[in-house]
Structures are given as structure tokens and as C-alpha cells.
Amino acid sequence: MPIYNADIADIFDEIADYLEIEDENPFRIRAYRNGARSVRGLGLELRDLVEQEQDLTRLSGIGKELAAKIVEIINTGSARALIKLHERIPEDVRQLLKIPNLGPKRVRRLYRDLNIQSIEDLTKAAEDGRIRSLAGFGKKMETQILISIEDFAGQQKRYKISIVRTYADSLVNYLENVNGVQQVTAAGSLRRSKETVGDLDILVVAGKDSPVMERFVKYEDVTRVLSRGSTKSSIVLRNGLQVDLRLVEAQSYGAALQYFTGSQTHNVALRQLGRRKGLKINEYGVFKFEERVAGGTEQSVYESVGLTYIPPELRENRGEIEAAGENRLPRLIEMQDLKGDLHAHTDWSDGRNSFEEMVAAAQEKGMTYLAITEHSGRLTIAGGLSADRLQAQMDKIDQYNDKHSNIELLKGIEVEILEDGRLDLTEDILGRLDLVVGSIHSHFGLSQQQQTERILRAMDHRYFSILAHPSNRSIDERPPIQVDMIKVIQAARDRGCYIELNSNPKRLDLYDTYCQAAKAEGVLVAVNSDAHSVNSFDHLRYGVGQARRGWLEKQDVINTRSLAEVKKLLKKTMG
Ligand code: DGT
Ligand code: CA
Ligand code: CA
Ligand code: ZN
Q1: For the segment 442-489, what is each residue's pLDDT rounded down to a tens digit?
Q2: Does the beta carbon of 91 sit less than 6 angstroms from any atom of ligand 1?
Q3: CA of 153 to the centre of ligand 2 (A)
Q4: Which of 125, 154, 183 is the last residue of a domain?
């Protein structure tokens, strides 16, 4: 692989970072920084100059030490100086330099004296009050550090999964069509189905002569090229999304996919496990002494340390490694397990498509049942239904079911939970439905105790089937309400009702950890679309992704059941 100037500049910057943490001679540090800058800005590729045996010290900003390093990097792909620094300082300590107002001196103290190796370590130490005791830090500095970490996190804009999915699909398709490209995979948090994605990580296997890097940086949607190297390049798309591309050899594909899928904490735990077994795991493969023992596939990487394959959605270091070691990983739910949908709107309330269009679309998706659940009257901005209109819709549904047999419509409502926990319709009308979906669209600011009691009271109603979007967060728009979700889940268990995982990518609410809690309590989860148009049934894939992150299996989700079973389960909540 040819070495590009960007590869060399990255190495110089990395060396400078470590030298700063080590409190090295400032002139030497500055030499590396200047070197990185001038290498990046150079019009010619250094590897051509080296091949022509030109004197590199004639370039501005390049002295004897750096010239020698450039030759070394071009010939060997790396610099011994950097490898030595890596042995002394863990890689992640470098991240600390990015925190505003921290600076290398403080980073050094934090690492040396408190063994803080990452931003997570730093957050924890500040929260535990361990930083104030360091000489020269103090309580004020400790608070300031927490604020700076938050600022830093805030700068890292995150994108909804649905947006990144769309961009990823186009880019993957584009790269697949470049000459010599054998494989393209989107890794990182997208592959783990996280609700939001910081940047997109793409992994490519291609032949030696493939122009894939050139084509990548020339993708039509690129607004900025951050770096361009032989095995690694980064671009920014017009919407601000950063995309990192890594080029790997086929024999390393599995190891690289495993590495770049993350999460970082999962990878750290996996590497530790490897170390205990005398194996070294990195993005190139699994090695015993110097010999490669695995790495072509992800499966081989996991098997090399005695684990069964761990699906990407579980890779958060939340017990999946232990479970894989004992062969008790869940068999995660899949898209085709869904038999129907228990929450959808039509233009009778605020949906964009007609009743007939929604039903046809659900049928086309292969659903065997669909619950129509319009808003109730109190939600006037959403065209909420009065009792009379609801009765009219129920009649329409009865007529539909009489005439058709390939999909069954269920009579439902998305009833407003009022501020005091009462429902927005009387028992008289609610009792005529197949299911009652209850949700909150107002009074988001109640205290945790009030909010929790409000929901518990709503669930206490004679007719209450499913609590919809329980935290009410709306990504980029609204934080979650304050509620004791564990209490709510336990209440659902006691009352025999169900909890929704809303598949709309701006909600994805129930959170993954609460899916696990629901499963532990034996509360069935409804993975619903909350469709407001024919296209939004497609959102179910994100709901399933989130359910998988929450360790849910087919049997944990109510709408994987047959129509007859679902009707029975809903009936239990209706009287
Ligand atoms: P994001 O982009 O914030 O949504 O989250 P990720 O998980 O995609 O993180 P990202 O893009 O920084 O890196 C992708 C994966 O590559 C990450 O999950 C683990 C691996 N990785 C990247 N940088 C490092 C690193 O410095 N140390 C370790 N151990 N792993 C890393
Ligand atoms: Ca990423
Ligand atoms: Ca990345
Ligand atoms: Zn709804």
C-alpha cells in the first residue's frame, strides 16, 4: 500500500501528542507539529521524493530527525518512535488532550497520579470527587472539567440512525461499483443499531490497484476531505456527517470488521480476554506469538477466544462476553418475526394517508393484523377523535373485517393520558375496543414522582393495553420526561399490560436497557411503527434494531404472536 502524506502527518501529530504528555523538550514537540502541518500542505507526495532519493531537509519545516522518520514511515509503514511511545502510554490517553482547558500538563498528572486513561475514566473520577485532591486541581477545577467534558460531547453532533442509514446505503453502493472492490461494509455504531450515530465508519476490501480511495474522496456529496491516506481516509458530507473509510486486506477483514464495529468498551474487554489466553487481538487479526490464528471472519475472531459469535447490537460490554462464553446468548428477534403492528394512524386523525391506503400498505408488508389507533379528542392539534367519530371508525373496521380475510384490523385508540392520570375517553366507549394504547403528549415537566404516579394511575384503568413511547423523548427536539421506568415496568407486570418500543427513529423509546428490564420482569414489548403514513411502516426495522440492542427475543415481543394469540393477550387487558 502506498503511504500518503496524510499518513505521515497523522503519525507526526500522534508523536507530538505523546511527547507533550511525556513533558518532552518543547522544541522537539513543535518540530513534529510544524512537520505535520507542512507535510499536509505539500503539493507533492513524499513517497515520490523518497523514491527519487531527494534531500527532504530542503522542504520547509523538515529537519534531519523528521526527514529520517519520513523515510522510515514510507519504507516500513510506521515509526519505531511511535511504537515505543505506544508501549508507555495507552492510546486513549490522547483523547484527553481534546478536552477544552485540560492541556498536556494536566493530562499527564491525571494519567500518572490517578491512572485516568480515557474520557470515561475522567468523567468518573470527577464525579467521584477524586480529582480535587490532586495538588493544583481543587474542587472548582473538578467542576470545570465536568463542564468541559459536556461541552466536548456537545460539539460532537450526532445523527439519527435513519439519516445515517440512508447516506450509508448510497455510499456503500457507490463504493461497491469501484474497480477492484471486493467488499464494502458499514461498521461502527450504525452496525450496532445505535439510535444516534456520531460518524460513519466504512470498511473496504479491495485489490492492490483499486482506485477506491481516490473515488471515495471524490464522492459527489463530499464537502471537505479531512485526510487521505493509503489505508485510511476521512471526508465530511454536505450535511456535516463525517465518514471514515478503512481499507483492509481480505485476511484481516473479520478482525477489522470486529474492531471497527466496536463498541470500544466491548473491544477492550475482548482484548483483555484474549490476553489472558495468550492471544493478541487487533484490527489485523488474532495472533499467538507472531502467528496469525484468526481474522478472516468475525466468527473466527470470537471463536479464537472461546466465544460464540456475538451479534453487533449486543456489543456494549453489558454481559454479552460472559454470556457468549457460557453459550447462553439470546436468539435475537428478527424483522420477519413481526406478524403485525399495534399502533398506526390514518387521516382520520393526523396520519397523512387514508384508511384504505394504510391498510393496503400494511398488507403489502406481509402483516396479518394491524391496529388502527387514532389520537383521542383532547389532542386537538392532531385531529383527535371524539367518541362518536371513534364509534364510526369501529363500524368501518367491522365492515372491513367482514369483507376481507388476508389482514385483520383491530379496533384501537391512542388515548391521551391526562395530567392526573385519567384517560381522555369514558369506559363506556373504551370497552368496545380491541385494545387501548395510552400515551402522554402534554405536561412533560412534572416531577419524577408525579409523572410516575400519573402513568401508574393510567395503567390502573379497567381498559389499558399498551403504554406507548414511555419516556417521550424526541431526539434533537425534546429530552425524556422524568419517570421511574423500572417502577412503570413492574406496574405493567402487576397489571398485565404491555409496553411499547416505538420504532419512529426520532423516538426509539423504550431504551435498550429498559427492554432488558421488561424482559427480566416478563413484560411483553410491542414493537410498533406508530405509522402516520404508508412509508413509515419501514421504521419497524429501527425498532427491531433497538429491540435487539435490548436483548429481546421473538417470544419477548407481543406482535410476533399469531392473530389468535394476540387477540387473547389483548383481551386480558380489556376488562
Ligand atoms: P459513534 O461514531 O460515536 O456513533 O460511535 P462508534 O462506536 O462508531 O465509534 P467510532 O466511530 O469512534 O469508532 C468506531 C469503532 O472503532 C469503535 O466502536 C471501536 C473502534 N475504535 C475506534 N477508535 C478506537 C480507539 O481509539 N481505541 C479502541 N479501542 N477502539 C477504537
Ligand atoms: Ca462511528
Ligand atoms: Ca469513526
Ligand atoms: Zn401514535
Answers
A1: 999 999 999 999 999 999 999 999 999 999 999 988 889 999 999 999
A2: yes
A3: 14
A4: 154
